[in-house]
Design a protein that fits this description.
single chain, alpha/beta, Glutathione S-transferase Yfyf (Class Pi), Chain A, domain 2, six-stranded mixed β-sheet, four-stranded antiparallel β-sheet, 41% helix, binds adenosine-5'-triphosphate, binds magnesium ion
Length: 390
């Protein structure tokens, strides 16, 4: 990768074993995980803006001060991440980065290449690599906005049902376009864009119902994996339910009826949506309820340790299900997770990772936490944007 956050350039060779990254605060451990997460569709594990990722030289300490002038990127220079990924169909090279159309003041665009060839949509990455992550920031997921929980479930769905990424991308794009037309309509008159609005809402209705249906379906399958798995003590099953108006329509009748209802609801909310910017109904307003399988308590009422265990449980179920259904396992990006589990849960986590055969990327400041992994993992020390195997 190059010009990526605090990294000028870095090349890292790993094998298929779990990757342990240790080093002091601010070294660049989470940045590495973020780089891996950007080889999948979406904004990565920090939900960052593309331009925010570009290395800002001179911002930190001696390294930046002593850096030679040529390491400072020219205006318009962009960041890039590339990876060689061993998939069930052989090795695939994936690259992504930021492109500026028309210089630094121009539009930011994410470019994606697969085996050197540009692909039309980053959503195509979903069928090559799947990755799921847990970060300290996700401790707030149960008290956070509904968007954080939807993103969590959607990421699980991407892994089992890769076309879901394209659906979500298309829906969000159409929703933005509808808002643009609705707001323009306020100037041109309400009838001016009627036909185009019908077309957009038609697309939102079919894609929106497909999104809600995929979330419901995957959550149901994940809940069934949990019930039969062997790790109930450390990681109780996380019962997930996607909830919202569209989900209620799907409960009540066939998908075609739900599409019809969504189409009608979008049409009816045009003037309100023009003001608020968005849409009053649709799968972008759904929530995800998670309950503790053993106690039956809603996750928001569980202890913080239990909440973490529920999230881990969900991604372990995902990895098992993906292995069974697709013959591949997702990459697990676990930022500062191990150190914050008690010893029993930490060992259970390591045991599960080994049993599933997933390449987990684990970070922490304290090396001793990872000792139980022994030779089953590969270890790197990260300090001041330099990564050294040990
Ligand atoms: N765009 C950027 N340009 C330059 N440096 C950046 C950029 N974005 C973030 N950084 C810096 O990268 C450094 C490493 O961040 P990172 O989050 O990877 O640290 P970490 O090793 O995970 O630390 P911690 O143990 O505290 O979580 C930080 O000092 C941060 O300020
Ligand atoms: Mg970090």
């Amino acid at each position: 990768m190059s010009e990526f956050r605090n990294y000028g350039s870095l090349r890292l060779e790993t094998d298929e074993r779990p990757v342990v990254l240790t080093g002091p605060n601010g070294a660049g451990k989470t940045n590495l995980l973020e780089a891996v997460s950007l080889l999948t569709p979406g904004k990565g594990l920090r939900s960052a803006k593309l331009s925010e990722i570009l290395r800002r030289p001179g911002e930190r300490g001696e390294r930046a001060v002593s850096a030679p002038a040529q390491s400072v990127p020219e205006a318009g220079t962009t960041w890039a991440v590339a990876g060689r990924i061993a998939t069930t169909d052989g090795v695939v090279e994936v690259g992504t980065g930021l492109a500026m159309d028309g210089g630094t003041k121009g539009r930011e665009r994410r470019v994606v290449r697969v085996d050197g060839t540009p692909v039309r949509s980053q959503m195509d990455l979903a069928s090559i690599l799947s990755a799921v992550w847990l970060t300290p920031r996700m401790d707030l997921i149960f008290s956070d906005s509904t968007a954080a929980r939807r993103r969590f479930l959607d990421r699980l769905v991407f892994s089992l049902d890769p076309p879901h990424a394209r659906r979500v991308g298309k829906y969000e794009h159409t929703l933005r376009e509808r808002t643009r037309v609705l707001r323009g309509g306020a100037v041109r008159g309400p009838k001016a864009d009627g036909h185009w609005l019908n077309v957009l809402e038609d697309s939102m209705a079919t894609t929106g119902v497909a999104i809600a249906a995929a979330r419901r379906e995957v959550a149901g399958r994940l809940n069934r994996v949990d019930a039969t798995s062997q790790r109930a003590r450390a990681f109780p099953s996380a019962e997930m339910t996607s909830t919202g108006v569209v989900e209620e329509w799907l409960d009540a009748g066939p998908a075609l009826d739900a599409e019809e209802k969504l189409r009608a609801a979008l049409r009816a909310s045009r003037s309100r949506d023009a003001e608020t910017g968005g849409a009053a109904v649709g799968p972008h307003r759904s929530d995800v309820k998670i309950t503790h399988g053993r106690s039956g308590l809603a996750a928001e009422h569980c202890s913080t340790g239990e909440q973490k265990a529920l999230l881990i449980s969900a991604i372990l179920s995902l990895a098992r299900l993906q292995a069974a259904e697709r013959g591949s396992v997702p990459i697990l990006l676990l930022d500062e997770i191990a150190a914050r589990l008690d010893e029993e849960r930490r060992c259970a986590l390591f045991g599960n990772i080994a049993a599933i055969g997933a390449q987990a990327w684990l970070t922490g400041t304290d090396e001793s936490v990872f000792a139980p992994l022994g030779a089953t993992a590969q270890y790197f020390h990260v300090e001041d944007a330099t990564v050294t195997p040990w």
